[in-house]
Write a structure and sequence with these properties.
Elements: E1 4-8, H1 17-23, E2 28-32, H2 40-55, E3 60-64, E4 81-84, H3 89-99, H4 102-110, E5 114-118, H5 120-125, E6 155-157, H6 165-175, E7 179-181, E8 187-191, E9 194-197, E10 204-206, E11 213-214
Parallel strand pairs: 1-5, 2-3, 2-4, 4-5, 6-7, 9-11
Antiparallel strand pairs: 1-8, 7-10, 8-9
């Protein structure tokens, strides 16, 4: 059976509690890729934060890859969850493409793994990260913005608020790509071709009706 993609709007355990409850329903090995943050000390702080949050939820082995050789990708196969948090989306895509790891993420999900993307990690899960230009600086000068494309051709706009709607709607129209606009207190699970919201805040789709979402069960 294939895995699933978990999309968070803000990468906060408190805001995304419903999403995290499903993602971390059982213990296991969690591989964390903090590469949207470019400094080593910032990456290490992600490990401390995630380890602390998961200690409240059960028995998890958090393996945060910081100073790892490219061959370490083979170790992904023994993980149950791949956790990709936020930072700079352009730096994240550039890092994974340079290491040749993008295709391995799709293989991980197809093999039954659970992929979490929060903020920059959420954008990476979509077809393209160009939408990140609305709020991120391209610090690496990337020319190819194609991403994981694990969400049926859609792109992701995290940290969404009602005030963002006109800009996101315009962007979707210009680029002719459906946008999943995820608020910080919302979440989305894509499994077996079905998008299901976790709530409590609703995910918006631009243009309206382009993608069908199954509402969260209250």
């Amino acid at each position: 059976m294939g895995g699933a993609v978990f999309i968070g709007g803000g990468c906060s355990a408190a805001d995304e509690e419903r999403l995290w409850n499903e993602l971390f329903a059982v213990g296991g090995r969690v591989v964390c890729w903090p590469y949207a943050l470019r400094k080593r000390d910032a990456q290490a702080s992600v490990h401390d934060w995630l380890t602390g949050e998961l200690a409240k939820r059960g028995d998890f082995d958090v393996d945060t890859w910081i100073d790892v050789p490219d061959r370490a990708i083979a170790g992904l196969s023994s993980a149950q969850i791949l956790f990709i948090p936020g930072g700079n989306t352009f730096a994240l895509l550039d890092c994974l493409r340079a290491r040749g790891w993008l295709g391995r993420v799709g293989e991980f999900v197809e093999g039954g793994g659970l992929l979490y993307g929060g903020s920059a990690g959420a954008i990476l899960c979509g077809a393209d990260i160009a939408v990140a230009g609305l709020f991120d600086e391209d610090v690496v000068g990337i020319s190819d913005t194609r991403a994981l494309d694990l969400l049926a051709g859609a792109v992701v706009y995290p940290h969404f608020t009602a005030a963002d709607a006109p800009v996101v709607e315009q962007w979707a129209g210009i680029h002719d790509e459906p946008v999943l606009a995820v608020p910080e207190r919302g979440g989305l699970i894509f499994r077996d071709g079905v998008f299901r919201e976790t709530g409590p805040e609703r995910v918006r789709v631009f243009p309206s009706g382009a993608i069908e979402l199954t509402a969260a069960v209250c």
